[in-house]
Amino acid sequence: MGKNLAKVKHTFYTCDGGSCRKARAEQTSRDTRAYIRNSGNWENTHTIKTRCNGRCEDAPTWIVQPGNYWYKNVNSKTGVNIIKSHVKNNQPLVDSLLFEEGSTKVCSENERSNSFIKPFEHKELPSGNKGWITKGLSSDQYLYALFIKWCDSQVEGIFTNRIGEKHPMSSLKTIDYTDEFTIELNFEGNTETLLIGAVGANDKTEKQRLKIRGTFYYTEENTENKGIIFKNKIGEKVASMEFKCDRFWKYCEEIQLGGIRITELA
Ligand code: FES
Q: Is the CB of 56 inside a 6 Å radius of any atom of ligand 1?
């Protein structure tokens, strides 16, 4: 018989996003689940791995329900103490709290500025023309959203792969991101594969070379040309997109670049 869900009193949401995994979230998750099993709390608790919770600076993060308690820097030891505190005393582990319901303040030692994207720089672009360029984010939660938006928008332009082969951007028909690491862009008659999944810094395989680590957004001066360049860890171009569509550029500014605009800088 499966778990009797009516007995579950506390749910621990353990972040499994890239930053949290880098901060040993998987080990923490294994150790704390072992504690739950051995302490006889399997029936009255539940654990759920989540994707990134947006607080990577405090990795690894947990959320505990009921109560909407957020925890920071959770290692195996604090994880066990968090579980004990909620299960035995129905109280949060105050010293490790990042946020709790009703609070107006996030309690972090690592708070980052809201402007996580640097301002556009005015410089010579790879095309040789002058223009403005900045670096966006390259985690899969940004890139997958970007490719979905591109596919839905039917943007006119050119996609170029890493060996220089080109496809009309509007011929992108479907996207498949079911693999752990790679996303398939299915153009009419062709499929291109890009690596956007989380690859550990210590991974020594070819993945490291293919993984998109830098996503650069640019717009040329005195032309309507805009584009996105995807690069790997050592600065090699993995792919690029060139387009003129203002609507798609606006999306890039708003969503991918957190609202940063060239007009504010010019
Ligand atoms: S990866 Fe865990 S909060 Fe971002």
A: yes
Task: Determine the straight-line distance between the first and last CA of the chain, rounded to whole angstroms.
Answer: 66
Q: Is residue 240 part of a domain?
A: yes
**Which ligand 1 atom sits closest to the C-alpha of 17?**
1
Range of 247's domain? 121-256
The CATH number of whichever domain residue 56 belongs to comes to: 3.40.30.10
Contact 239, 162 (CB under 8 A): yes
Q: What's the structural domain count of the chain?
A: 2
133, 123 contact by CB (below 8 A): yes
Q: Which of 19, 49, 71, 98 to mutate to test the pocket of ligand 1 (most atoms within 8 A of CB)?
A: 19
> The domain that contains 180 carries what CATH number?
3.40.1570
pLDDT values of the chain reduced to their tens digit, one per residue, 266 residues: 788 899 999 999 999 988 899 899 999 999 999 999 999 999 999 999 998 998 999 999 999 999 999 999 999 999 999 999 999 999 999 999 999 999 999 999 987 765 578 899 999 998 899 999 999 999 888 999 999 999 999 899 999 999 999 999 999 999 999 998 899 999 999 999 999 987 777 777 888 888 999 999 999 999 999 999 999 989 999 999 999 999 999 999 999 998 887 764 44
Task: Quote the CA–CA distance of 214 and 234 in Å, as a whole number.
Answer: 9
Nearest Cα residue to atom 1 of ligand 1: 17
Kindly give the distance from the C-alpha atom of residue 149 to the centroid of ligand 1, in angstroms, as a whole number. Answer: 23
The verdict on the CB of residue 20 being under 6 Å from ligand 1 is yes
Whether 250 and 213 map to the same domain: the answer is yes
**How close is the Cα of 93 to the center of ligand 1, in Å?**
20
Task: Determine contact, residues 151/225, Cβ cutoff 8 Å.
Answer: no
Of how many residues is the chain composed? 266
**Residue 115, in any domain of the structure:** no
90 and 130, same domain (yes or no): no
Residue 19 CB–ligand 1 contact under 6 Å: yes
